[in-house]
Amino acid sequence: MRVTPFVLPLAAQALVAPRPHMKRLSSQRPAAALEDYCPPLPEAFEAQAALTADGAAEAYKASLDDPSGFWASEADRYHWQTPFDRSNVYSANFKRSAGPIAARWFEDGATNIAYNCLDRQVEAGLGDKLCFIAERNDEGETSPLQPETYTYAEALEETKKLAAALRARGVKKGDRVALFMPMVPELAIAMLACARIGAVHTVVFGGFSRDSLASRIASAGATCVIAADGVRRGGKVIDLWGIAKDALASARDQGTPVAGGAVILRRLDDAAYPEPQLAADEAWWHNVVTSTDGSDVEWMAAEDPLFILYTSGSTGAPKGIVHATGGYMVGAGHSFRTVFDAPVRADDVWFCTADCGWITGHTYVAYGPLLNGATQIVFEGVPSWPDAGRLWRIVDQHKVTHLYTAPTAIRALMRSGDDPVTSTSRASLKLLGSVGEPINPEAWRWYREVVGDDRCPVADTWWQTETGVIQIAPTMASGAGPHKPGAAMTPVAGCVPALLDAATGAEIPAVIGEEAKGLLVLKQPWPSMARTCWGDHERFENTYFSYDGYYLTGDGARRDADGHYWITGRVDDVVVVSGHNIGTAEVESALVAHPAVAEAALVGVPHDVKGSALYAFVTLTQDAEGQAGDELAKELKLRARADVAAFASPDTFHWAPTGLPKTRSGKIMRRILRKIAAEGADVSGLGDTSTLADPGIVDELIASHAGAS
Ligand code: PRX
């Protein structure tokens, strides 16, 4: 089914129509009060921006009027071994009432994303250009066996060698490979090596526990694991291989043979990590990357899966989000080039602090920058180590021009004051990006004025694992109008957002001058959208397409009178903690597995640095009633860490004396729990509680708030 193009939405009109009431901020601080603070694009940035507001608006309009033509010409930037059918660039169905949900792009085309990231760049003369610059956990640290930089030619060579080594271990097109590594260039190289031979990678963030890794290996049916021995994170050494080895054994116990065994990157030296004994089917990376023989490119159909990335949902186990080769490639390349005003000039240096364990690292470290021939930093450490000046020193040392990080990092660094920032130059910076959660206006302003010296615009970019690339972000175009702190603002090419009334499901018409609030949905198919949940298309349809004709994001949003979008946060049972999506159901089941716990419910509460923190309501079994307190809280935290991940451990435990507030049909009223968690004993305005089976429980919960651990 072909989807009809849509008319230019309000937000796009707003792009070319800056509103007169927005004030221009003088460069002298203190400046306008926060609520009036809406700075324009800084002049220094405007002077060098490649985009113009007219150009951006035209591109946006073209992407809606003629999606096929628009995306076909984007696809033409890449090598296609077999051309795609230009008379059928895409087909899609967003209506369950009309049949299975589907999106197909670049039908009949065959390509390879790794070839387009590396071989194509080398052939175009970029072989000697720096591709990756490693920045380790400790300043000045080097790796015993890995180089500190890779040119495009060197990255290609290493990718080919690893691809050949994977093939020698029996990995072939369509097989899944699980990656469990720190943020080193070799992680991106491992992703590219998989893509080169048509293997589907599934990267698991190095902060996950053995059980989380094992369940992902088993769910994906991985045939091989690529891990690292360990990594220094801040002052600690994390035993990644110890976790991976146990996870491998556990996945095998669950019936997944992992016939290709494991390849392990020797990242640390003997002093930090004594060399472990490896089994027969386990090998050191440096011992297997010996030859490029057998590294021929596997040409992939555009719709062949490129990767699976697990993300938490409101219920059940994490979902394996599947992205397809051709559409993801075209989307990632386009997004990186256009949203950030093409950080690919000869002296541009891109620095995205995200880990490849998340979608941001996939699109804006492994793929987007390479598809565009950019030079980038790959940072293994954390922004706070050894102190709050680390990021800014990296910026100065490598002359970083474009920095992309998360609000949680910005807020944490802001707490250390301006000195660690202002004692560095940061003169190379041109643009600052933000991703992962709503950025509060105070942090936005600090980022722009203190970090960016008011010379660099802030791009607050909204998107998701499922969207593959940025969907809503302010335009970095000369003349596009002021940026609003805290607003992601305008849709990018190909994106048609809308708001649905949460109560009725009806679309709220977009009218200039009228504000609206609702469920954020996307109406038009885009090339890099997720295709399915691995092995469970029904779950994909149920989760994302419950409203006929719309992709449901799971986020709430406000559209202001100018037509600009402000993301207000999740509307489901997912809590975003420090930019990590946490499915409350997953953590609850970890807590309930403890013999003392009868029932548990988790909610998110506002947190100054993390954005949201996890707050657990726990009812104990009769036998364990006397155990409520700090000791048990500690045990339960450890359990959440072990079963899910350290970042999924609740901050607070509220011991619910007699139970949790439930409706007569047995559903926990989380709305009430969220309010009590956030407001404590002074909570008011709990709304309608008439459907509760036992309203007395609410008073007990309020009274017991003070006893939380
Ligand atoms: O709630 C939104 C929030 O992060 C969710 C997506 O998380 P994930 O799939 O892990 O991808 C994170 C990186 C793209 C969204 O549903 N989110 C992401 N970016 C923003 C955001 N919320 C507000 N503003 C943002 N810029």
UniProtKB/TrEMBL annotation:
- An example Gene Ontology biological process: acetyl-CoA biosynthetic process from acetate
Q: Which GO terms describe its molecular function?
A: acetate-CoA ligase activity; AMP binding; ATP binding
User: What Pfam families does this protein map onto?
Assistant: ACAS_N, AMP-binding, AMP-binding_C
Superkingdom classification of source:
Eukaryota
Q: Does the keyword Ligase apply?
A: yes
Domain Acetyl-coenzyme A synthetase N-terminal: from-to ranges: 57-117
Q: Which NCBIfam families match?
A: Ac_CoA_lig_AcsA, PRK00174.1
Q: Which family does it belong to?
A: Belongs to the ATP-dependent AMP-binding enzyme family.
Protein's name according to its UniProt entry? Acetyl-coenzyme A synthetase
Q: What is the source species?
A: Pelagomonas calceolata
